[in-house]
Structures are given as C-alpha cells and as structure tokens.
Amino acid sequence: MAVPLVEIRGSGDSYAIFHKGRQVGKANGFDNACVRARVWESRLQRQHRNCMCCGELFEAQGRFNRLCIPCKQVLA
User: Fold this and answer.
1) How far apart are CA 16 and CA 33, in angstroms?
2) DSSP code, position 50
3) Where are the domains of the chain?
4) In this predicted model, what pLDDT tens digit does every residue of 29-75 receive, in sequence order?
5) Strand partners for 17
6) Hey, is 59 helix, strand or coil?
7) Does the CA dihedral 4-10-15-17 come out positive or negative?
8) Mean pLDDT over residues 1-5, rounded?
9) The pLDDT value given to residue 2
10) What contacts 76, CB < 8 A, 6 or more positions away?
11) First to last CA, the chain
12) How far apart are CA 41 and CA 14, in angstroms?
C-alpha cells in the first residue's frame, strides 16, 4: 500500500492538511480538505524530466509522464 503524501487532520468544520508533519493548508469541512489534499498530492508528484522524444526539460505530471506536450501533439 502506498504511503500518502499528505495527511488530513481535524474535526467538525476545521481541517488542516499536513505534509511531512508540517501544515501546508487549511480547509472548512472535510470535503474541502479532501479536495485540497488531492491538489497538494498532485503538486508533490510533479517533477522536471527530460522528454524521451526531443530531450527538452519539462514538468511531468507523474511518474509515467515522459513526453512533453509538443511531442505528444506531433505523435497523436
């Protein structure tokens, strides 16, 4: 099972989002906290990678994202 990148703590209408024990966000209500946690997780998963087609550096959205947008459009 994968370790979550962020943690939601709180109760009632007051929640906080934590990453590595440090508070990175606040939310009113559990549903809003879940949305904000997903946004933080997607931000944390982004990495700068070299495109496997042209070699240019780009911001990958996840570990399986290996082609930059221009190369994806050409290959589509």
Assistant:
1) 7
2) E
3) 1-45, 46-76
4) 999 999 999 999 888 878 889 999 999 999 888 778 899 999 999 98
5) 8, 25
6) strand
7) negative
8) 71
9) 67
10) none
11) 34
12) 20
Alpha-carbon torsion (54, 50, 65, 68), positive or negative: negative
When pLDDT is averaged across residues 3-30 and rounded to a whole number, the result is: 92
C-alpha Rg value of the chain to the nearest Å: 17
CA 64 to CA 54: how far, in whole Å?
17
CA 26 to chain centre: 17
Question: What does the block give as tokens for 38?
Answer: 């997903």
Residue 45's pLDDT is what? 79
Q: In sequence order, what are the beta bridge partners of 9? A: 16
CA-to-CA distance for 54 and 36, rounded, in angstroms? 34
